[in-house]
Amino acid sequence: MDDILLLEAIERYLSDDMSAEERSYFENLRKNTPEIDQMVVEHNMFLHQMDMYAAHRNLRHSIHDTHQRLLERGDINEGAEISTRGRVIQLWNKYKRVTAIAASVGGVIALFISGMVMYFAPTVNGNQLQQLSNDIAVIKKNQQVQGNLINEVKSKLPEGVRFVSGGSGFLIDPKGYIITNAHVLKGSGAIVVNNKGQEFNADILHIDQENDLAILKVSDKEFVPRKSLPYGIRKNSSDLGEEIYTLGYPRNEIVYGMGYLSARSGFDGDSLSYQLQMSANPGNSGAPVLNNNGEIIGVLSTRQSSAEGVVFAVKSRNIFRMVDAFKKADTAAARIKLPSKSTLKGTQRKQQIAEVEECVFYVKAFAK
Amino acid sequence: MKADSNEQALLKGLANNDSRAIETIYKENFNTIQAFILNNNGSYDDARDIFQEAMIALYEKAQSESFVLTCQIKTYVYSICRRLWLKRLQQLGRYTNQVDSLEETVPVEEDLDNHEKRNAAFAIMDRAMNSLGEPCKSLLEGYYLKKLGMQELASEFGYTNADNAKNQKYKCLMRLKKLFFAQYNIGE
């Protein structure tokens, strides 16, 4: 009972509810009894805490209400249908005709716009971007020049087929999994050629048009799997200005090129790729882009036709993304293990090239 | 400068729990945050949670006496949400290679620490309140949270007079304090 009286006194004292006389008596009491002083402090803090707690609860309520209100009004959208069905039905009955008209107008506009986009988009890109795969004309010429050679070694190409495009590719798993650009694989099948001119049959496992990446698997018995890969594939983004190099097959022999990373996004702000400053030619498509540590930071894919030396590479992060997606879709992919560590760190560029060279392949796509 | 005074007014409204101000801030910022969360492995529910948490952090910031607005509300809310979301992702151990962001951010770590401390205290209060039982809980809520008068409470809870109700209230309060401080002091 005493405690209650004391508590009441403290509360009245704190809320300034005492007469002057009572107040001075209490203050005196407080001064002389440390326990009471302690209780006053504690209770003051507790009341403050309660106030804040109350304010918080009210705020949470009003925020929650606001959310519901905005949701109902359609100012924000959570992708789900609106919960207050009764009102929706009322509104629907009321605005049925207006909605129908609006919907059909919307539909027509949507069709029109998508038509416009379809009509314009490819032409814009087509003019400004050039895919770096070899087209048929180039290959034809190569074949003429090298015709004898190919006949001599008896090509692995199935009979009665013709080349449609060519590019580069590189191993992402020593067991013979090769990655290249999706646009390199224009035909129905492909063979790969190593840096010594040896040809191997390969199966197209997976094509991801969105990321412009594709996976091949060397199916040839003559192929000797490597123990490990010298390079790693970089998971994180790379820095602006980083020095980079590439190895690819713009001709029948492997060609080295170097440059630097000039922008973190690709053509027209495309966040899936980097912009690089280097020279690249048709046939470089699908070639690995490596940094000084021997880490693969991207896959060379396109160049801007209106500017000199402006090249775009698909970011290496997308390789992980694509392989993950592929693994989910197909159990055959479970064996792919991407190299994450580069063993080339701190070695000379010449030595790096000598090791990487063996893992870069010339990809030739053919059609019947 | 007009925008600035506008934002100040909004914050003042928020600090006073004014529903118009809350609605305006909500409307202007929610969609950006939702898009950000959805683009970074989150769901609609996550977006709502994170955004509402950020609103409360902003409210706390607006209430503190030392408060100065050094950036736009938009930037502040985005920074808080980004930080909260990164933390949440880390806790869940989800794949967080890099959260995509093109917006500018301001450092908010300190504010968030304070916010979390407060949240912890509120959680203790919540637990204490809920373990009180009736009629203590409603009585205390009525007096301290809804700020009802003793007379009103007496009639609502069926006490014969205000003094009886008051007596009961203090008994309840003592229990609540005991429950609260038992937890709170451990936390300190």
Secondary structure blueprint with pairings:
The complex is a heterodimer of chains A (368) and B (188).
Chain A: H1 2-14, H2 20-32, H3 34-73, H4 85-128, E1 129-131, H5 136-153, E2 162-173, E3 177-180, E4 189-193, E5 199-208, E6 213-218, E7 232-233, E8 243-248, E9 255-263, E10 273-277, E11 288-291, E12 295-304, E13 310-315, H6 317-329, H7 349-357, E14 360-367
Parallel strand pairs in A: 7-12
Antiparallel strand pairs in A: 1-12, 2-3, 2-14, 3-6, 4-5, 4-14, 5-6, 8-9, 8-11, 9-10, 10-13, 11-12, 12-13
Helix pairs in contact in A: 1-3, 2-3
Chain B: H1 2-15, H2 19-39, H3 44-63, H4 73-92, H5 109-130, H6 136-145, H7 150-157, H8 162-187
Helix pairs in contact in B: 1-2, 1-3, 2-3, 2-4, 3-4, 5-8, 6-8, 7-8
GO molecular function (chain B): DNA binding; sigma factor activity
Keywords (chain B): DNA-binding, Sigma factor, Transcription, Transcription regulation
Protein name (chain B): RNA polymerase sigma factor (Sigma-70 family)
Please compute the radius of gyration of chain A using only Cα atoms.
Answer: 35 Å
Q: Largest chain-chain contact?
A: A-B, 38 and 35 residues
Order of helices and strands of chain B: HHHHHHHH
CATH 2nd-level architecture of the largest domain in chain A: Beta Barrel
Integer count of domains of chain B: 2
**Roughly what percent helix of chain B?**
over 70%
Main β-sheet description of chain B: none
Highest-level CATH class of the largest domain in chain B: Mainly Alpha
How many β strands of chain A by DSSP? 14
**End-to-end Cα distance of chain A:** 100 Å
Structural class of chain B: mainly alpha
Number of strands of chain B: 0
